[in-house]
Amino acid sequence: MGWLSKTISVLAILVALSIGSIIYTGFFLSPQSELEKSDAIVVISGGETKQLVDEAVKLYEEDYAPLVIMSGAARDEGPSNAETMRRIAISQGVPPDK
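Above: the chain's sequence. Below: its structure in token form.
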């Protein structure tokens, strides 16, 4: 077996291990059990803001927690991500004091 074949074999093994690691990590980061009621629903900004808020509002409406906490900084002088998410939640029926 030449050096090129060995190099390709090693690279293939590394790619397979990388893909396996990503899938393995994703499994443990995804919910594996039924949700339980809690003291608060915490929404951390990033990515699909509306989708995150929609899920938080759904959990709030299903009485998983009496309080929704939004977390997220402002990228510029505008409102923070937390404030934007709060406004979306209020527009969907979550009381401002929740």
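The mean pLDDT is 87.
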